[in-house]
Amino acid sequence: MIFLPTALAGTFIIELERRSDDRGYFARTWCQREFNQMGLHTSFVQTSVSYNSRRQTLRGMHWQAPPHGEVKIVRCTRGAIWDVILDLRPESPTHMHHVGVELNADSGRALYIPEGMAHGFVTLVDGTEVFYQMSEFHEPAFARGVRWNDPAFAIEWPVTTPILHARDAAYPDYIPLVAR
User: Fold this and answer.
1) Among 1, 58, 101, 113, which residue carries the largest CB count within 10 Å?
2) Over the stretch 14-47, which tens digit does the pLDDT of each residue have?
3) In the sheet that 2-5 helps form, which strands lie side by side, from edge to edge?
4) Phi/psi at 67 (5° precision)
5) Is 74 helix (H, G, I), strand (E, B) or coil?
6) pLDDT computed for residue 174 by the predictor
7) Residue 105 falls in which region: left (phi positive, over 0), alpha (psi -120 to 50) or beta
8) Residue 96, C-beta contacts closer than 8 angstroms, at least 6 positions apart
9) β pairing state of 58-64 and 117-123
10) Alpha-carbon gap, residue 44 to 72, rounded angstroms
């Protein structure tokens, strides 16, 4: 695996290191030793799949609050997404900044998302599937979110009228902890 740092502290794009021959290729998508060498979290307790039948479906921006904050590895296993991570860690040098990356089944790329980041994506094609590895169990009482188009973040999405869940559309404007 090849770990490419993004503009957000502690986040990485994970590229496949493919071993190709006339049959196709083989590549690791997870290796505890390589994650340890990078100083990254290596204990994952839950995996999930999100299937999205229609392009322009937007899911996000979500995270879990402490003490159930979670690290995620996100990979698109069918179709394509525009994936966005948003740094909500008040002590971070990249607090309130975001990064967007296309993930698709052809590239096999994944995102490593540390605890304290909001995460969301919009599908770019019909029939898109997203695979998650998470370091914590889902705890509904600790689920949090911010609105996908909150002006505080100025996220540039590749869609203007996404298909949204009512909850995602109704999140209030974000108020940083330092301003509360």
Assistant:
1) 113
2) 999 999 999 999 999 999 999 999 999 999 999 9
3) 2-5, 12-15, 110-113, 72-78, 128-134, 46-52
4) -90, 20
5) strand
6) 87
7) alpha
8) 86, 87, 88, 152, 153, 176
9) antiparallel
10) 8
For residues 23 and 12, give the distance between their C-alpha atoms in angstroms, rounded to a whole number.
30
Q: What's the CATH fold of domain 2-171? A: Jelly Rolls (2.60.120)
Render pLDDT for 142-159 as a digit per residue (tens, 0 to 9). 999 999 999 999 999 999
- What Cα–Cα distance (Å) separates residue 38 from each residue in 50, 99, 158? 28, 20, 32
Burial status of residue 94 (CB atoms within 10 A of its CB: 0-12, 13-18, 19 or more): middle
* Side-chain-side CA neighbours of residue 3 (13 Å): 16
> For 60-119, what is each residue's pLDDT tens digit?
999 999 999 999 999 999 999 999 999 999 999 999 999 999 999 999 999 999 999 999
Both tokens assigned to 163: 């298909």
Domain ranges of the chain: 2-171
